[in-house]
Amino acid sequence: ARGKKIFNEREDVACLRCHAVKGSGGNVGPDLAGIATRQTRDYLLVSILDPNKQIAPGFENIVVTLKSGTAVAGLVKHEDKFELVINSPEDGGDVKIKKDEIVRREASLSSMPEGAGKMLTKFDLRDLIEYLATLK
User: Fold this and answer.
1) Cα separation, 25 vs 65, whole angstroms
2) What is the structure's pLDDT at 67?
């Protein structure tokens, strides 16, 4: 219950602003419904303390430079052998890019702020992880 309260109500860490649980919350980060069936407590802890260490698929921020000199930045939405699809707010949504047009590709930082774990006491962090571990 304490961890759920932190997730839902703590303005300083703002979990619910970016993450949803069962459709309630933000969509900047992954929906955490079912996270306990997909990830371990250790993974969750590392994700909070060092959000750039492992970024969930579909939430990788990148910048690609094309042969034309144009740069496109956003979230990787889909990628296969021939094409990359980036959701780029600056370019009005999904941008399809042929891979042979890419000159440079650079990973950006996670949209989850560094230091979120430092805003929590050890007990708060424990409670938050335990709450997330109930999301099956």
Assistant:
1) 33
2) 97
* Model pLDDT, residue 37: 97
For residue 11, give the DSSP letter. T
DSSP conformational letter for 47: H
pTM of full prediction above 0.85? no
Tokens (6 digits) for 57: 């698929």
Q: Mean pLDDT across the stretch 11-23?
A: 92
CA 13, chain centre distance (Å): 14
Half-sphere exposure at residue 61, Cβ-oriented, CA atoms within 13 angstroms: 11
Question: Do 7 and 17 touch, CB atoms closer than 8 A?
Answer: no
Helices (H) and strands (E) in the chain — how many of each? 5, 7
Q: Mapping DSSP to helix (H, G, I), strand (E, B) and coil, where does residue 77 land?
A: strand
